[in-house]
Amino acid sequence: MAFAPKVSVLMPTYNVEKYIAEAIESILNQTFSDFELIILDDGSTDGSADIAKSFTDNRIVYHHNDVNLGLANNLNVGLRMARGKYIARMDGDDISLPERFQTQIDFLEAHPDIDLCSCGLQMFGTEDTVWVREANPEAVKITMMFYSPVLHATSVWRRESFEKHNLYYDQNAFPAEDYELWSRAVFHCKLVNIPQVLYRYRIHGIQVTKTDDRALLKSKEIQIKYIINSMPFYSVVDAYDFIDNFIYNLGSSLTELDAMKNTMKKFISANKKTKYFNDKRLSKRLVRYYQSKILDYLLQNKSFSFNLLADLNIRQIIKLVYTIL
Fold it and tell me: pTM of this prediction?
């Protein structure tokens, strides 16, 4: 039996001939060297395959699908091929900084109770933004209600932990297949994010999550299911109400803001029964989100409302007064 590497890197690719060489080189140049790089070509019709196969490093495993399987199914092929203790994600058009794997593997080795960590990323190309997600696993659980709390392409996780709970991707959740996976994994595993920016995420205008209208619909489906699973005393109707009247409430009128407040109070009260979310963290996060909507409303309308002002903190009130006056 061949010696198993410590890390299996999954790199799904499809028609990325302009960028794949740079992506592969960024993995081969890692300071951490005990890995296999599984390139999962989902039926590319450009020169991606030739470029990938031009690399002679024996740590590279090239796999080509005869038909296009879709991203989630393609990743599941890689998960079943993987031999490493850890699974690491990498996109075929991005760049991992040299210290990425060493930093993340060192973290997971030092924290055996943590099953997954992602890292911060720096966008480049047509955008220049830094994204960093929450480091605390309890905060991750709360963020799951709003959006994906893990930066997918930067993630590294324990293969055994995910296999134990049959945690694989679902193609039906595309293009939010990562979000859907985390929404199931969080009930069995601890997910965290480390603050270091160790990944460069290329923005070139064709990313599915930016162009596919299904992303929002799939995200809402995931959020509804997550809330129902995490709040046993919450009905399906209540879950939909929370999504519509809180998460996606625009707060553009006094009626909408009032609905937000009532829905928030109801959710916080329900959590005191289930105790799935940390009470203090949940209240702080929801109140902060509600306050942001109040502030936006008052600034947009250039008005003061004593009822709404009572729900703001002093710093927000000062900002409001300074901006309007």
Answer: 0.93
